[in-house]
């Protein structure tokens, strides 16, 4: 059973605080308020795309300070990126003195844990630069007879696990760690490994009374364990969306967040109202994501109506890219549009076919890079098999069936993230050939119900023939 917080330290009545928040423009829905003001010590919030995750996280921090009477320094708030931390601070700035924002530990888990380790140990470690780390990984890879890319991926996953559960090649790990010692340095992942030792081997007590975790679906194993340890004697508030877990290459899988959702001592809340997009865009996204084996029948709904996504066919990628550049040049959307692709190479190719690589005011991002962003108009490039889903490694490489299914599920979540960035208009582009080779439309379009589309004038664009073509 979920335990509740003792409210004896409350400094402001809940109803008065809610009225004050509402008067200042915080128009939370009832399902959002339930999560914000919950008295439970462990809380997990499932927050689908556009459901107000940042608003709820900011309101929860204010609730702990202004209603329950915690000091800002009692809170540890972790975000996935520095940009997310900056946005959260801007939400809180009108409500808290500047000194309070400085006292509150808010930022990425790595940055906050490094600060704590330095305070506890009295030492300042030397961290490798990205270029130094790349050179060390490639050196270890050469000695093991594998590529630098393979070595980097293996080491990243190994160091994302609980210390002592090392699955990576012993020789690769030994060589790499030996090079780190020779440099007298840590890599980025060593920060969390050292804090794990601080918490669980040295028994140091964390200084925070409440831990708030943004993007909880992106926690890997060691991060999930650390979050539990940091909040063991305090409050834990986690918010995320397992359908948007897209960092498997860093060791993050939906199972860690889902494990928190299933704990009997955790109060679980669901945010199901999308405030970003209209229903015409939300419905295909719902249809797509239920095809994942780890999806649990969650459904997002929007408050307003609007048209569904557009699917456009082109003879080849050249025609696709030229059409896109013409549209962007003509409509001059200036920061309100995004072009999304699975890889940087696809973006560079499409950019090169504009006027001297002109971006026309649009934001050009990979699917991963679009996470946490939203735009009025979104264009998705190359919605074909091989790109969505995209397979790492050599074409035709044999894989274990379980691994194959896992890769497709993560790619489906990634395509879902890309689709859900759109506020008003979503255009999905399908070239029938790429580099002269015949393509097949991405299976994700059929799963989303977009393999046929009615056009103006009552004509139907027959898309299923491309999907079925071998």
UniProtKB/TrEMBL annotation:
CDD domains: DEXQc_UvrD, SF1_C_UvrD
GO MF annotation, one: DNA binding
Family, similarity comment: Belongs to the helicase family. UvrD subfamily.
Pfam families documented for this protein: UvrD-helicase, UvrD_C
Catalytic reactions on record: ATP + H2O = ADP + phosphate + H(+); Couples ATP hydrolysis with the unwinding of duplex DNA by translocating in the 3'-5' direction
SUPFAM superfamilies: P-loop containing nucleoside triphosphate hydrolases
Species classification: Bacteria, Bacillati, Bacillota, Bacilli, Bacillales
GO terms for biological process, alphabetical: recombinational repair
Organism: Kyrpidia tusciae (strain DSM 2912 / NBRC 15312 / T2)
Keywords: ATP-binding, DNA-binding, Helicase, Hydrolase, Isomerase, Nucleotide-binding
Keyword DNA-binding: yes
InterPro entries recorded: DExx_box_DNA_helicase_dom_sf (IPR013986), DNA_helicase_UvrD-like_C (IPR014017), DNA_helicase_UvrD/REP (IPR000212), P-loop_NTPase (IPR027417), UvrD-like_ATP-bd (IPR014016)
Sites where the protein binds ATP: 47-54
Name of the molecule in the record: DNA 3'-5' helicase
